[in-house]
Write a structure and sequence with these properties.
iron-sulfur, 14 helices, 4Fe-4S, chaperone, TIM Barrel, Arc Repressor Mutant, subunit A
Length: 403
């Protein structure tokens, strides 16, 4: 959910899917709920988020009611294509979802479950900053059916947190984890590596601090300097240095070593889980090309080969829904070639890998060279899986397979 929306076809005012859309009832359906509010804007972040001074008429206290209008719209649109599927995963992302009162999050969750009666093993994830979770919040969320808390730790080193403009204290993570554990929630920790000025020793300290919390799941993402962010401007002015690619590669390898030794296994290039049951099923649906509806300003959805996205500003989003209009800003019907490209791009990053039959025509002729270069495992004719070296160069592998 970056700084600019794609250029594509306009979306109809009523939100209807393209004529002739056929939904496969066996394809899982999920819901992403974007909560676009933050106390401060982190210097590296280009997500569609807003601090209190940037809302221009939109009100946080009205947000749950506004988003529930889109839930009703989605139910109407999807019911026009056939029987409604149950929602199998719900993900509250942001922004900082836990800036809203827990009761507001619960009302939105209840609204989604009422519109799309959920599966028996519904997975519900809430992202949270460490300093926005206490025992009361965790208990309220757990009682309402939330199953996972994804805590934005990012680093355990104060100078790295300062470079990233993170507002929480490093010791707040343990407090948030304890609250989640006491409430019976699964715990995922999110880390970022490769910040300007971060050393390999700093990164080891963050990993060891995270592992001391015994998380069920951990995500580790290399810092990407996005155009238009405060971090990019500081680097352009010479105040900070660009992240070093070689150091980032060493950091990834260190993470994989330590996490594997601690009993977490990688299942996607940037994600590790203690058991298969601890994997994030919602994100897995993205990587498999399943269906989801993205609710909220700037949120993206995908239904049966049509990708669509909402207007970005909370005030514009609220205004369209108040007028009975879809908040969608645009959409794209994916061509067969685009779907093949996305399948390669996403599935090759997973531990299960990619079926060779899903490759573009002729790409299987390139597999022996990728094996020789140590980028994919020796294969039978039915599966393509990355080696650890291949994980470091996943984008390069994708470029070769889709050229």
């Amino acid at each position: 959910m970056g700084a600019a929306l794609p250029l594509a076809d306009p979306a109809p005012a009523d939100g209807a899917l393209p004529a002739g859309t056929v939904i496969d009832p066996t394809v899982p359906f999920g819901a992403y709920l974007h909560i676009p509010f933050c106390r401060v804007r982190c210097g590296y972040c280009d997500f569609n988020t807003y601090t209190a001074t940037e809302l221009r008429g939109a009100r946080q206290e009205d947000y749950a009611d506004t988003l529930l209008r889109e839930v009703a719209l989605a139910r109407r649109v999807l019911s026009e294509t056939g029987p409604l599927r149950p929602v199998e995963t719900v993900f509250f992302g942001g922004g900082t979802p836990t800036l809203l009162p827990a009761d507001d999050l619960v009302r939105m969750l209840d609204g989604v479950r009422a519109a799309f009666p959920g599966a028996a093993d519904l997975e519900v994830t809430v992202e949270a900053n460490p300093d926005t979770v206490d025992a009361g919040v965790a208990r309220r969320l757990a009682a309402a059916g939330v199953t996972r808390l994804s805590i934005g730790m990012q680093s355990a080193v104060p100078h790295v947190l300062a470079t990233l403009d993170r507002s929480h204290r490093a010791d707040a993570v343990a407090t948030a984890v304890a609250a989640a554990r006491e409430a019976g929630l699964g715990v995922s920790l999110d880390l970022i590596y490769g910040a300007p000025g971060e050393s390999l020793a700093d990164w080891r300290a963050s990993l060891e601090t995270a592992l001391a919390q015994n998380p069920d799941h951990l995500s580790a993402y290399a810092l990407i300097v996005e155009d238009g962010t405060a971090l990019a401007r500081r680097i352009r002015r010479g105040e900070l240095a660009l992240p070093d690619d070689d150091l980032q590669a060493e950091m990834y390898e260190l993470a994989d070593d330590l996490l594997t030794s601690a009993g977490l296994s990688w299942y996607e290039v940037s994600n590790w889980a203690r058991t298969p049951a601890d994997r994030c099923r919602h994100n897995g649906a993205y990587w498999r090309g399943s269906d989801w509806w993205g609710f909220g300003p700037g949120a993206h959805g995908h239904i049966a080969g049509t990708r669509f996205w909402n207007v970005r500003h909370p005030a514009a989003y609220a205004g369209r829904l108040a007028e009975g209009l879809s908040p969608a800003a645009g959409r794209e019907v994916l061509s067969p070639s685009s779907r093949v490209l996305e399948t390669v791009l996403l599935r090759v990053r997973t531990r299960e890998g990619l079926a060779a039959s899903a490759l573009p025509p002729g790409a299987d002729d390139l597999l022996p060279e990728l094996v020789a270069d140590g980028l994919i495992e020796p294969y039978t004719r039915d599966r393509v899986r990355l080696t650890r070296r291949g994980r470091l160069l996943a984008d390069h592998v994708v470029r070769i397979l889709t050229a």
